[in-house]
Amino acid sequence: MSADVTLVLGGARSGKSRYAEGLVTALGGPRVYIATSQVWDAEMAERVAKHRDDRGPDWTTVEEPRDLTGTLRRHAAERTGVLVDCLTLWLTNLMMAEADIAAETAALVALLPTLPGRVVLVSNEVGLGIVPDNALARRFRDHAGRLHQSIAAAAPRVVLTVAGLPMFVKGTSI
């Protein structure tokens, strides 16, 4: 039996998080939300609070900006749905910490097939727009593209959300 891993990609406000939450909720068991964001200002704090309120009390929220593989090892379990939101914020945190992104990506990709339960990874597709005008933004876009390719190769399912609609890029709907 292959791992139950889905990568959900999309642009800003594309419906990717809502779709991913539905995949986890449909499983019917415990739900774990791994939040990779870091709160830097009041506006971000409001966003985080709203997202938590929208999910409701049936979710266990784990805030982990960097140690994604360790957090997945600790929380993935049979009949449990785990949602990681999102990989691009995780990538940002790794870049800010000057971490070895290739090694972190490889560790995550190696871990995914071993995880029990359902794991849904959300990420922003940032490579569809113009080439950024500065080196940092170009490095981020390049790292994100490589990260997405690596995860997509390992995941049985890849979904691209556009205007709230899921488009199945790899695999079929659950």
From TrEMBL:
<keyword id="KW-0418">Kinase</keyword>
<keyword id="KW-0548">Nucleotidyltransferase</keyword>
<keyword id="KW-0169">Cobalamin biosynthesis</keyword>
<comment type="pathway">
    <text>Cofactor biosynthesis; adenosylcobalamin biosynthesis; adenosylcobalamin from cob(II)yrinate a,c-diamide: step 5/7.</text>
</comment>
<keyword id="KW-0067">ATP-binding</keyword>
<dbReference type="Pfam" id="PF02283">
    <property type="entry name" value="CobU"/>
</dbReference>
<keyword id="KW-0547">Nucleotide-binding</keyword>
<dbReference type="GO" id="GO:0008820">
    <property type="term" value="F:cobinamide phosphate guanylyltransferase activity"/>
</dbReference>
<dbReference type="InterPro" id="IPR027417">
    <property type="entry name" value="P-loop_NTPase"/>
</dbReference>
<comment type="function">
    <text>Catalyzes ATP-dependent phosphorylation of adenosylcobinamide and addition of GMP to adenosylcobinamide phosphate.</text>
</comment>
<dbReference type="InterPro" id="IPR003203">
    <property type="entry name" value="CobU/CobP"/>
</dbReference>
<dbReference type="GO" id="GO:0043752">
    <property type="term" value="F:adenosylcobinamide kinase activity"/>
</dbReference>
<protein>
    <recommendedName>
        <fullName>Bifunctional adenosylcobalamin biosynthesis protein</fullName>
        <ecNumber>2.7.1.156</ecNumber>
        <ecNumber>2.7.7.62</ecNumber>
    </recommendedName>
</protein>
<keyword id="KW-0342">GTP-binding</keyword>
<comment type="similarity">
    <text>Belongs to the CobU/CobP family.</text>
</comment>
<keyword id="KW-0808">Transferase</keyword>
<comment type="pathway">
    <text>Cofactor biosynthesis; adenosylcobalamin biosynthesis; adenosylcobalamin from cob(II)yrinate a,c-diamide: step 6/7.</text>
</comment>
